[in-house]
Design a protein that fits this description.
about 300 residues, alpha/beta, nine-stranded mixed β-sheet, 13 helices, globular
Length: about 300
């Protein structure tokens, strides 16, 4: 297990500049813009999804990102920009979220591995590294359990094993039952600190801007479909059967997913690594450079090992 040291807290910041501007500004100063991305609309198994593809280097395995509940693919643009430009990246909006139309009937996490496999098929990839955050971490676990042949490495961020987990405080869970924070910027700023923890406690404007300034708003029905999809779902009994090497990233101040869940998953998943970072639920976007470095080290270790064997 590794843990990030606690960074110094700045004495004060100019609130005239938005939180998102500061996040993106740090990335712009870090280097030139990343490689271009193509936006596509694909239909897989009768479901239409909006997909963003950053080509990268063709002989590198792509990184497939699975977003949290209600979040469109733009939310983690800062994280994608912080990754090695040679790494192909695939992002998508779940049906009913962002730019993807809502399906006629709800779906369940157990039925979604065919959607991810179909995306990879249409994009010409046999295998991918898969990163899932929060709700998307459940999807990533289900995909790795159902189709281990399609997952080279697995990264689980701020997530848990579903219904059989140690829950956050009741009021936090109640706020997760509604998409209001995605639809009301003022409400997002008011609840950000207590809901997301970490950097959102010091600067709730960052969370507000991440949820509203660049992301696409989907139908409220899409959010509720995602809630329904996770009802009764758990990976806990099957975690010892996870085959891909797994990196678990967990914040030490995450009100939605208490840290103990990551420790339980680390004990149960073979060949897993636990990295505890200082921060909360949204740090993958608000502190992208630091967490991207941890993800890159994990993904590149296997590439280096393969290269030495050949």
């Amino acid at each position: 297990m590794t843990a990030d040291p606690s960074p110094p807290v700045p004495a004060g910041e100019d609130r005239a500049e938005s939180g998102l501007d500061r996040v993106l500004g740090r990335l712009r100063r870090a280097g030139p813009p990343g490689p271009p991305e193509r936006m596509r609309v694909l239909t897989v198994g009768g479901r239409t999804v909006r997909v963003s593809v950053r080509e990268g280097t063709r002989d590198w395995p792509p990184l497939l990102l699975c977003n949290g509940i209600g979040a469109s693919l733009e939310l983690f643009q800062p994280f994608v920009d912080a990754l090695d430009p040679r790494r192909p990246v695939i992002r998508f909006d779940m049906p009913g979220v962002g730019g993807s139309p809502a399906p006629v009937i709800p779906y369940h996490l157990a039925t979604l591995p065919s959607l991810l496999a179909g995306l990879l098929d249409q994009l010409g990839y046999e295998q991918a590294d898969v990163l899932g955050i929060s709700w998307g971490g459940g999807l990533a676990q289900q995909f790795a359990l159902s189709r281990p042949d399609r997952v080279r490495r697995l990264v689980l961020v701020a997530t848990a094993p579903g219904a059989l987990m140690v829950p956050g405080r009741p009021w936090v869970l109640l706020r997760m039952l509604t998409p209001r924070r995605h639809r009301d910027p003022g409400h997002a700023a008011r609840v950000a600190g207590e809901l997301y923890g970490g950097s959102a406690r010091k600067d709730p404007i960052v969370a507000r801007d991440l949820l509203h300034a660049t992301t696409r708003l989907g139908l409220a029905r899409g959010y509720y479909y995602q809630l329904i999809a996770s009802l009764g779902w758990t990976s806990l009994p099957w975690l010892p059967k996870l085959r891909p090497p797994t990196l678990i990233l967990a914040g030490d101040d995450d009100p939605i997913i208490p840290l103990v869940n990551a420790r339980i998953m680390h004990r149960l998943i073979p060949r897993s690594k636990l990295h505890v970072y200082h921060g909360g639920h949204l740090e993958l976007a608000t502190d992208s450079e630091r967490l991207a470095a941890a993800v890159e080290a994990f993904l590149d270790a296997d590439l280096t090992a393969q290269g030495s064997q050949h």
